Amino acid sequence: MAVVPRVDDHLFYRDLRRPLREIVRGEGVYLYDTEGRRYLDGCAGSLAANIGHGNRRVAEVLRRQAERVAFTHLSRFTNGPAIELADWIAERAPGDLSRVYFVSGGSEATETALKLARQYFVDRDGPETPRWKVIARRSSYHGNTLGALSMTGHRARRSPYEPLLNAFPHAAPAYCYRCPFGLEPSSCRLRCATDVEETLLREGPETVAAVIAEPVVGAAAGALVPPDGYWQRLREICDRYGVLLIADEVMTGFGRTGRLFAVEHWNVVPDLLVLAKGMSAGYTPIGAVVAREPVWATLRDRSGRFVHGHTYGANPLSCAASLEVQRILEEEGLVERAEAMGRVLLGLLRERLGSHPLVGDVRGLGLMVGVELVADRVTREPFPSSWGVASRAGLAAERRGLVVYPGSGAHEGRGDHVLIGPPFIIDATQVEELADLLEESLNDLAGELAGRNPH
Ligand code: PMP
């Protein structure tokens, strides 16, 4: 039954000129709006709603926990769900990543990792330590708060705030479709990893606290999968110069790429593992930083406290929801399913879109697939940023009843992209439906753009 849409006169969203549709219900991989229209959630919101919408088990756990106790403050008390969730994560995280610090989302988590890296060196070497820089990469996204944005290598998101940002250096991305060095993966000898080392040397390794990277780049550039060996090289470089390696798995963590943590594809143990999104699959705001034992032990043995904290960190409600989500993920074999369905999805999208006039590249790992849109498939020239092709693609999909996660790129010489990352519970028929809808949406978009000249 259609519900009367409300007027959102007082909500302040990102897009100030376009009213948004109101979603009233979610079930599995589908969302329903006030007019009863159904959308296939092809991007799990922002690659967060990994177990799908409307899960009764999570709803029931939330209700029970809210009745028992919804809030305790971590400066004074701990609580059962936080203890159990920390145990659960520590048992499954790679290597000796075993100390879990809870926050409320991805940006809080990357900020926390940044501060933890700094405090580690202050505690270890004394307050005069010159180690404060974090080396990140261009075409990356680590969040929108100021520390996180300082690490983020995305010009458009940074530019209004430049005076507020820290001057962190940015190395080249691992971006094979547009290799910054004009090389081929088969013979490049991981030139982009060498660039991280060169950046470190240029800055002076004694001033660097950490290197941060997304195992597979998500929002900034649409599922950039690094070449094999890249993450092992990052680990070697960080070890060589005594710098912490931070894996930002806010998007990739908890199964998105077909492994519980994406660094497991390359058997690398980072010093800090940053998590959010799939942690609660969107049911409650939560994030975490998982530290290796020696990092945590340094703080314990030296200053004895982490000079940090947020009101909602480790709150029982979010932790209880997250724990239930993790149980569901494991009991229902959803990580394996993400891997299997991801393979089907990538194959299908390559088949359908491989020679589409707007599509330059289809890439991904697990259920995280990026489709890069270009004005010219041969030269790989992006559309002009003034055309807003990414957001047009998002709207074209929405009109067809498909939700995708678009991102613009022309401001830094990349193509615009759409990121596809449905809930892991998607089945083969729904993957087919997703591919059909995306192909139709891009055909619509091609029609919309026909006759316009990018020059
Ligand atoms: N890091 C990565 C890799 C992300 O994908 C995101 C969110 N897209 C963030 C950090 C920021 O997370 P949040 O939006 O929860 O603040």
TrEMBL record:
InterPro entries linked to this entry: Aminotrans_3 (IPR005814), Aminotrans_3_PPA_site (IPR049704), PyrdxlP-dep_Trfase (IPR015424), PyrdxlP-dep_Trfase_major (IPR015421), PyrdxlP-dep_Trfase_small (IPR015422)
SUPFAM superfamilies assigned: PLP-dependent transferases (SSF53383)
Highest rank taxon of the organism: Bacteria
Coiled-coil regions listed in the entry: none
Keyword Metal-binding found: no
GO function term, MF aspect, one: pyridoxal phosphate binding
One of the Pfam families matching this protein, by short name: Aminotran_3
UniProt keyword terms in alphabetical order: Aminotransferase, Pyridoxal phosphate, Transferase
Classification via PANTHER family: AMINOTRANSFERASE (PTHR43094), AMINOTRANSFERASE CLASS-III (PTHR43094:SF1)
Family, as annotated: Belongs to the class-III pyridoxal-phosphate-dependent aminotransferase family.
Annotated protein name in UniProt: Aminotransferase class III
